[in-house]
Amino acid sequence: MYRSKLITVIGVIAFLSVAWAIFMKPGGTPQSAGEIITAAVSGLPEDSHQNAVNSSDPLKGIRQFWNYTGFRNITAGHGIMIIIGLVFIFLAVRFDYEPLLLVPIGTGILLGNIPFLQEGGLNLQIGVYQEGSVLYYLYFGVLKGIYPPLIFLGLGAMTDFSSLISNPRLMLLGAAAQVGIFITFLGALSLGFYPQEAGAIGIIGGADGPTAIFISSRLANGVNILPDGTTVKNLIGPIAIAAYSYMALVPVIQPPVMRLLTSRKERLIRMKPPRAVSKVEKIIFPIVGLLLTLFISPGALPLLGMFFFGNLLRESGVTKRLAETARTSLIDIVTILIGLTVGASTQADVFLTPSSVLIFVLGAFSFIIATAGGILFAKFMNLFLKGENKINPLVGAAGVSAVPDSARVVQVEGLRADPNNHLLMHAMTPNVSGVIGSAVAAGILLSFLG
Asked: Whole-angstrom Cα distance, residue 29 to residue 64?
């Protein structure tokens, strides 16, 4: 037993001695990454990167290899972000919280926070912010707002507007829920964000990830220069992560607000079934909706134009292949790309800032206000409605844009109060209206701030 302990001690000492010889200068001072590279390539021709590894001193090659590893370059920030990425994946797999979003985003966070050498402006073409890397070019679709309209095309091809057409007054609940956007905009201004940054942050209240990415790529992209010469912050990553996080946490955040603001009697209200909608109405609606909303808010054209176009593909009956592609293959591919690149954009040195913390706090506040706005407006509408025309206030919570998660939460809460009270179809109207409303709000903000 003593012999094995002695061998272990000798082995540890030998290992430490080798590590000391490889990674320390003769004087005993640790070498920085830049010094190691300089020492490895000094005195050699310009094309001697490979020769440095094969030089007469083999330790130089070993040092250079060590310098490029993630173990050498990791920081506490990288560790924190990797843990966050793992939590996203865990929530998706264990609790089924928006797995189609959180798995790509969580994996992207892991990819974006693999430590690598960046000293001296060295470009290894690895990171999402390094020109020439694969992630850099994929991220172009986020930075230029290309992916969100494609997501809206797929959403339009998936959406059935029958309930909205049959009971259009419920659209007002979707509009009322957008109050969270503008209240959060004012809150962000009061906390010291520039108007363009505040506008991008406020859109989180719509609980619409693609819209949040679209408007932040226009207003808070780290490129735009304000009249006073100040460059806006790059808030695309924090805003997108906050928006998608709260979308995934809809089943956690909304129910307490819904129960707090409604009585049991109100939760038991039964709404009359929606009427049947003709095919002609379904075809006319996306055309009228496109013209009306875009005349009001031209800035929303990329989003709502694609949204109503996708729905027209669905309802026309003559473009089944295009509609099928839009709502399946296309939206799945874009979801992978947008989730992966948004996650990768959360590099520790960019994401872990006081601004990110404030964005998450404001996002939670915005989402709660939006939920409350829809519920309270439904209660207000009931003051003027009687009998079977009354609205179950729970339906108002679906006014946020998290389709169809908010509508499902309304259904669950309705069944909790009355096992025979199905509210899903009714809730889809404000839910879809919330998508339209948040895009219109984004267009309005762009017209003032863009």
From this structure: 17
* pLDDT value of position 107: 97
Q: Residue 423 gets which letter from DSSP?
A: -
Q: Indicate the angle between helix axes 195-202 and 354-382, nearest 10 degrees.
A: 60
pLDDT tens, position by position, 343-387:
999 999 888 899 999 999 998 898 899 999 999 999 999 999 988
- Give the integer Cα–Cα distance in Å for 278 and 268: 30
Using an 8 Å Cβ cutoff, are 355 and 170 in contact? Answer: no
At 24, give phi and psi (nearest 5°).
-120, 150
Tokens read off for 121: 């402006």
| Cα–Cα distance for residue pair 198/202, rounded to 1 Å | 6
DSSP state of 221: B
Tell me 113's DSSP state: T
* pLDDT higher at 12 or 287: 287
Taking residues 284-291, what's their average pLDDT? 96
Predicted local confidence at residue 8, as pLDDT: 59
DSSP structural state of residue 270:
P
Measuring CA to CA, which residue among 124, 90, 85 is closest to residue 108? Answer: 85
